Amino acid sequence: MRFDEAYSGNVFIGANPDYNESKVVLYGMPMDWTVSYRPGSRFGPARIREVSIGLEEYSPYLDRELFDLNYYDAGDIPLPFGNPQKSIDLIEDYVGKLLAEDKFPLGMGGEHLVSWPVMKAMAAKYKDLAIIHMDAHTDLREHYEGEPLSHSTPIRKIAEHIGPKNVYSFGIRSGMKEEFDWAKENGMHISKFEVLEPLKEMLPKLAGRPVYVTIDIDVLDPAHAPGTGTVDAGGITSKELLASIHEIARSEVNVVGADLVEVAPIYDHSEQTANTASKLIREMMLGFVK
């Protein structure tokens, strides 16, 4: 299969079928091999695409529409079931190729571990990279029950890779005390519970820098996103998350890539979570790519 061929048939609404003409590449990472509670996020990317047919192509928030943006939906990367290391290697290689061709990578998970190889590839290209991370969980463990490849470890991995002071987490309301202590001792920014207001304060400090945005859908309260593997009460509203995406979009930071992870459709028969994720993807594309 050629690099510019889609991996699967379903495409996000408004996608351009021509890879070469497209600035943005939307791709799925259907992996949930390391989750510690409920599996199912490997079905997230496909369902987000399927429900996107219910979206309007126009964003009244940003006064842009998908037809204004050339983007290509590459489908899901075929990842080997139960093999996290090979899956990580395949993801890093794929994103590395996108970056070599000056594409804007927008990924859909899958569990949050899939963000680690993407961020690693981004850091190889952008030497002053900063990470904006929105999540219910710290994801700063070194391992989970002795396993270093876990969806609870990606932020610790990228923090150690590019330096903790370059990682900014928002909406955090769950994690081990040791994780919070490690962040504080190493100068990593963590905003507990809230996203929008602390994000507004932080964005001017990141002006001009290349920034990668990773969003775990469980930053939302379970009332807004029940379809995820590790729900955690006390989260933000979908309105606040949309406003946070728009705040980044209107800021002076240089967003160079992004992802949205941990949508597990099987736990939400109303499909509220997948539909919310689909709208978030639209706003990320239209907002982050100038």
TrEMBL record:
<dbReference type="InterPro" id="IPR006035">
    <property type="entry name" value="Ureohydrolase"/>
</dbReference>
<keyword id="KW-0378">Hydrolase</keyword>
<keyword id="KW-0479">Metal-binding</keyword>
<dbReference type="GO" id="GO:0008783">
    <property type="term" value="F:agmatinase activity"/>
</dbReference>
<dbReference type="Pfam" id="PF00491">
    <property type="entry name" value="Arginase"/>
</dbReference>
<dbReference type="InterPro" id="IPR023696">
    <property type="entry name" value="Ureohydrolase_dom_sf"/>
</dbReference>
<protein>
    <submittedName>
        <fullName>Agmatinase</fullName>
        <ecNumber>3.5.3.11</ecNumber>
    </submittedName>
</protein>
<comment type="similarity">
    <text>Belongs to the arginase family. Agmatinase subfamily.</text>
</comment>
<dbReference type="InterPro" id="IPR005925">
    <property type="entry name" value="Agmatinase-rel"/>
</dbReference>
<dbReference type="InterPro" id="IPR020855">
    <property type="entry name" value="Ureohydrolase_Mn_BS"/>
</dbReference>
